[in-house]
Specification:
The complex is a heterodimer of chains A (170) and B (568). With 170 residues, chain A is an alpha+beta fold. Helices cover 26% and strands 41% of the residues of chain A. The A-B interface holds A 11, 14-15, 18-19, 22-23, 26, 56, 59-60, 63-64, 66-72, 167-170 and B 116-117, 120-121, 124-126, 128, 145, 149-150, 177-180, 187, 189-190, 301-303, 305-307, 311, 314, 316.
């Protein structure tokens, strides 16, 4: 079992997202993260799904998804061929006397201060999922009060080499 | 024009001759449009499940899309079983349901149910129509999706106010479905590779399923089998796609298939799967299934290829085309056959392991009833069989002879008891010239027998032969074999109801048979009476279906009928 990122171009129609997600539960696959939003075309949404499954299951997921009427294209985003980003908001508990230290630390990690409260600071960080993970670990000792992550989104690198589809799918 | 009229004009534009349904509140405007006039014949079922299975029977007998109509709420939920059945058996179905008015959707209004939500996992696609201008395009798409690619059911849920709204009607010429791209071609390289593999095989076996019927590829399959002199096994769902009388047809493999068919499939070195999906009822224990064999898998649905069993040579595309190209490729290859010893071996197995049962004990055996039906219809190509699910279905599979496509209609994947009677009525509507016979069990019959009224009143006469053993026989068989004879909640009795009297009450002819001597006379009378007839065949309740591959066992380890009980 390994994690895979799947990119789905989906018609922006009522129920389309439900059809994709029910397919996962129906076939017994677990979604780790799911991000959905508009694309360059207003009629089309892009889904980025993160699933933990075998290569065989991944092939099944792709084939089953291709059969959904609202699904336009399904591609696996291989890490070496793609750019992946994630946004997180993290509220960290911090006493006044340690604020400066925490803010300095966050700047090194590439996070921004989104809001400052009496005893807590909310940071925003945008980056590769592993950078977001690292920042989360970095601030954890201070006490993470709340955390929200968007789930990763991704695009194929425009300079990635072309791959031919498997013969079964032609 | 009103939305309701637009629904009928759309059905007419699709060439729909007949729809099966039951009216109700949220679909009433559409029934009112039927009253205003249409070329679509409406058959009034007694239950929406009946309507759905009738539409399936119609589709399976005709090769056309079946149409079922129901109201919202309970009408829609009653259609769920036929939709699931059509999904599992890949039957093209357009189900039209009424929905509560748009302004009430989401309020738990009277008879409101989320029909598209409930059916989402068992339809190819569904639409909730809340804008009357979308109606013609949606119906066009619905028929297109149901019949293209791997066939199956779709649902169109139409709000009541949409049916009552005005539109300027124009039926579109084209569908606008950018995401729906079923394969139309096959890969020539894969065909060539398949042909080479077949030419080199020493023990090839064709494993043909329902996809051959759905893909209208029966003539092409026959050509392939003859061209390569290839032996074939044909699944329950495929029965009829290759004539049962064809010398290379070894019949059905699987849980209640013959020992020779199971051995043919499992001891092969090359399995040529065609429109079949390696169902667990066929493979038995997967790790022991056709060990060491290479697999060529032909299917129009890419997701079936490699789903259960890895295919060394996957061929995705329409079967008609694929099989025609394969037969041509084999012909051009013109390789000397290497599988003649295998063919001799198969013949030896067929002779050694026939279907058998004991006629002793003085009671009428269910198998005898099936043999009698087979003999009574021998040589006729105008008989369509339907079945319920259970022991009688397996005996029908084993003993009936089907030499033409679409002459055997059974519930395979879902195993829906009660499928037989309404499916027979739908088949009769598709083929009025045919004699349609439902071989049913007493348990199955009682699940949908209210549709006898539909058969009687709509002029769709069928013959229902109830293999009445007074039990939920297949469950009883499992209780006997695997649950230490604890026959819990399976006894129905042979006497209640009195099936012949029940038939009479529904305006049909009723016959009761209790002895072998009376069998042929009663069946002939039922066939010839010209109206719907029910033949109650009271059989030995202890008879079990053999051969049997127990659940989870390897398919080669077929249990045959115990020797001491077999005389024939």
């Amino acid at each position: 079992m390994t994690s895979h990122t799947i990119n789905v171009r989906l018609e922006n129609k009522p129920g389309a997202l439900a059809r994709v997600s029910q397919l996962f539960s129906r076939r017994g696959y677990n979604i780790q993260s799911l991000a959905v939003g508009p694309t360059e075309s207003p009629d089309i949404s892009r889904l980025t799904l993160r699933v933990d499954c075998s290569e065989h299951s991944l092939e099944q997921i792709e084939k089953q998804m291709h059969k959904l009427v609202n699904v336009l294209r399904v591609t696996e985003l291989r890490p070496e061929d793609s750019i992946e980003r994630e946004l997180a908001l993290i509220t960290v508990a911090v006493p006044t006397d340690r604020r400066a230290e925490l803010v300095a630390l966050s700047q090194v990690a590439g996070a921004q201060v989104a809001n400052v409260g009496r005893d807590a600071i909310t940071f925003e960080i945008v980056g590769r999922p592993d950078q977001v993970d690292a920042f989360e670990e970095l601030v954890r000792p201070y006490g993470v009060r709340e955390l929200a992550r968007t789930g990763r989104i991704g695009l194929r690198r425009s300079d990635a080499p072309r791959r031919s589809p498997s013969p079964a799918l032609i | 024009m009103l939305g309701s009229d637009a629904i009928l004009r759309s059905l007419e534009a699709e060439g729909v001759e007949i729809a099966f349904g039951v009216p109700g509140g949220a679909i009433l405007p559409t029934y009112d449009a039927i009253a205003r006039g249409t070329t679509v014949r409406h058959v009034l079922a007694r239950h929406e499940q009946g309507a759905g299975h009738m539409a399936e029977g119609y589709a399976r007998a005709s090769g056309r899309v079946g149409v079922a109509i129901a109201t919202s709420g309970p009408g829609a939920t009653n259609l769920v079983t036929p939709i699931a059945n059509a999904w599992m058996d890949s039957t093209p179905l357009v189900c039209i349901t009424g929905q509560v008015p748009s302004r009430l959707i989401g309020t738990d209004a009277f008879q409101e149910i989320d029909a598209t939500g409930i059916t989402m996992p068992i339809v190819k696609h569904s639409w909730l129509v809340q804008d009357v201008d979308e109606l013609p395009g949606v119906l066009k798409s619905a028929f297109h999706v149901a019949r293209t690619g791997r066939q199956g059911p779709v649902l169109v849920d139409i709000a009541k106010d949409v049916q009552e709204a005005e539109l300027s009607f124009a039926y579109p010429d084209k569908v606008d479905l950018p995401g729906w791209k079923p394969p139309r071609k096959v890969n020539a390289r894969q065909i060539a590779e398949a042909a080479r593999a077949i030419a080199e095989a020493e023990r090839p076996i064709v494993y043909a399923g329902g996809g051959v019927l759905n893909g209208d590829a029966c003539a092409e399959l026959l050509r392939l089998v003859d061209e390569g002199n290839l032996p074939a096994v044909v699944t329950l769902m495929g029965k009829g796609c290759l004539p049962d009388s064809h010398p290379r047809n070894y019949g059905a493999p699987g849980m209640h298939g013959s020992k020779f068919a199971n051995w043919a499939l499992n001891k092969a070195d090359l399995v040529i799967a065609i429109g079949a999906r390696f169902d667990d009822r066929v493979t038995g224990k997967l790790s022991s299934f056709a060990r060491g064999a290479r697999v060529i898998h032909f299917d129009v649905d890419a997701a079936e290829v490699g789903k259960i069993r890895h295919a060394e040579i996957p061929v995705v595309g329409p079967l008609q085309r694929a099989l025609a190209e394969l037969a041509t490729a084999l012909h051009e290859l013109d390789a000397p056959p290497k599988h003649l010893p295998w063919l001799r071996q198969l013949e030896e197995w067929r002779a050694r392991f026939p279907f058998r049962y004991s006629r002793e004990g003085g009671t009428l055996k269910p198998q005898t009833a099936l043999e009698s039906l087979r003999d009574l219809t021998a040589g006729r190509d105008d008989v369509i069989w339907t079945t319920g699910v259970g022991q009688h279905q397996m005996w029908a599979m084993q003993y009936l002879q089907c030499d033409t496509p679409r002459s055997f209609i059974s519930s395979g994947g879902l195993g829906t008891m009660g499928f037989g009677i309404p499916a027979a009525i739908g088949a009769k509507a598709a083929r009025p010239d045919a004699t349609v016979v439902c071989v049913d069990g007493d348990g199955c019959f009682q699940m949908t027998c209210q549709e006898l009224a539909t058969a009687a009143l709509e002029g769709l006469p069928i013959v229902a032969v109830v293999i009445n053993n007074g039990w939920l026989g297949m469950v009883r068989q499992w209780q006997e074999m695997f649950y230490d004879n604890r026959f819990e909640q399976t006894h129905l009795t042979q006497q209640v109801p009195d099936y012949a009297q029940l038939a009479e009450a529904y305006g049909c002819a009723g016959f009761t048979v209790e002895t072998e001597d009376a069998l042929e006379g009663a069946l002939s009378a039922a066939f010839e009476c010209g109206r719907t007839a029910v033949v109650d065949v009271r059989c030995d309740p202890t008879e079990k279906v053999f051969p049997m591959v127990p659940s989870g066992a390897a398919a080669v380890d077929v249990i045959e009928a115990p020797e001491e009980t077999v005389s024939a």
